[in-house]
Design brief:
It is a single chain. It contains eleven helices and no strands. The longest helix has 37 residues, at 65-101. It has one domain: MetI-like (MetI-like fold, Orthogonal Bundle), CATH 1.10.3720.10. Helix 6 (121-132) crosses helix 7. The protein is globular, with a radius of gyration of 22 Å. By secondary structure, it is an all-alpha fold. The chain has helices at 2-9, 12-29, 31-34, 65-101, 103-118, 121-132, 136-163, 166-173, 178-214, 226-232, 245-270. The two termini are 23 Å apart.
């Protein structure tokens, strides 16, 4: 009931964001049920216009575009969520350890992060993926590692601010261990900025996966993903066919929705009133 009360009091932009996210999650979860065809089934001519049998037309191989968008939502969103969760787990644990222990642990971890952040993210990812291959596991591991550097910076800064507060010092004097301090004192008080950062990092990872797929190093065909669909159908623009605009719009649609929710959450966490 409290959740619905918060929703009723939320601004219009937040409600729009929630609707956008709900639509995408629904598409991702029930893609096999909603889709009229299978993910790789060829159903008509190449780049056929929309019709009763093909709601959004077909792609460069004659596959139903609406079906591909649904399965693309499942593949792209699922990988982005797993990658973001992994990057947050790594970044938060390392950041909290660095802030809580300090000393040489903080120095070593921070210098490693500095070295990793010195390389442009896209170039570093392209270099690593070209060596280790572009399997889904490698894709998740590489992007999560790169993204965890940003999470580390935020979590370390927040944990250092919280770590000097009196209630943390009292817990230290009681003899509480590092893990207890991190779980019971630092993490609950660091949740608002971390949750907001999770939404922003999800958008970054989501767009990064789409960019890698557009460059041919993301999710491999015949699996559908929105970035790859833009690349596969880019040639249609030459003939005035709008097929690649549909997956590009889906990417923008979800990104805007998540950002609207993040803005709302930041407003709630700030304690400001309208």
């Amino acid at each position: 009931m409290a959740f619905f009360k918060i929703i009723r009091q939320s601004p219009l932009s937040a409600r729009i964001g929630l609707i956008i996210i709900f639509i995408n999650v629904l598409a991702a979860l029930f893609a096999p049920v909603i889709a009229p065809y299978s993910e790789t089934e060829i159903v008509a001519d190449v780049w056929a216009p929309s019709s009763s049998g093909n709601l959004l037309g077909t792609d460069n191989l004659g596959r139903d575009l609406f079906t591909r968008l649904l399965y693309g939502a499942r593949n792209t969103i699922a990988i982005a969520i797993v990658t973001t969760m992994l990057s947050f787990l790594t970044g938060i644990v390392c950041g909290f350890f660095a802030a809580t222990l300090g000393g040489w642990v903080d120095q070593i971890l921070s210098r490693i992060i500095d070295i990793m952040m010195a390389f442009p993210t896209l170039i570093f990812a392209l270099m690593v993926l070209s060596v280790v291959g572009t399997s889904v596991t490698a894709l998740i591991a590489v992007i999560a590692l790169l993204d965890s550097t940003r999470v580390y910076r935020l979590s370390r800064a927040v944990a250092m601010d919280i770590g000097v507060m009196e209630f943390v010092e009292v817990a230290r004097l009681r003899g509480e261990k590092i893990w207890w301090l991190m779980r019971h004192e630092i993490l609950p008080n660091a949740m608002p900025p971390l949750v907001a950062e999770f939404g922003l990092r999800f958008c970054f990872v989501f767009l990064f996966i789409a960019a890698l797929s557009f460059l041919g190093l993301g999710i491999k065909p015949p699996a559908a993903d929105w970035g790859g669909m833009v690349r596969e159908n880019a040639g249609a623009i030459t003939f005035g066919i709008t097929t690649p605009l549909w997956p590009a719009s889906a990417i923008a649609f979800l990104t805007v929705g998540v950002n609207l929710i993040v803005d709302w959450f930041l407003h709630l966490a700030s304690g400001l009133k309208d």
